UniProtKB/TrEMBL annotation:
Residues 27-73 form the Helix-turn-helix domain. SUPFAM superfamilies: Putative DNA-binding domain. Residues 9-18 have a biased composition (Basic and acidic residues). Residues 1-24 are annotated as: Disordered. This is Helix-turn-helix domain-containing protein. Transmembrane segments: none annotated. It holds the Pfam family HTH_17.
């Protein structure tokens, strides 16, 4: 059986890894993803309901968007433009 000090060290390590993950998480909420795309959250929600927009995932009761999926969706809609 692990000693209490070993258990505390493991808990401290887990807490530290969780803290770092929260600060660098690649998943965005609907509000964050909408801001990133220049859309309103309600527009992004409507797109999700219609099966449009970036790929999203249900984590618990909240929808999240991975930054790579947001970028891929945005890049797929690129159009050439005339440069002035």
């Amino acid at each position: 059986m692990a000693s209490p000090s070993t258990d505390k060290g493991a808990m401290d390590d887990t807490a530290e890894r969780a803290r770092r993950a929260r600060g660098t998480c690649p998943f965005l909420t609907t509000k964050q993803a909408a801001f990133h795309l220049g859309l309103s959250p309600s527009t992004l929600k409507g797109m999700r309901a219609r099966g449009e927009g970036p790929v999203c995932r249900l984590h618990g009761r909240a929808w999240h968007y991975h930054i790579d999926d947001i970028e891929a969706w945005s890049n797929a809609g690129k159009r050439g433009g005339k440069r002035g």
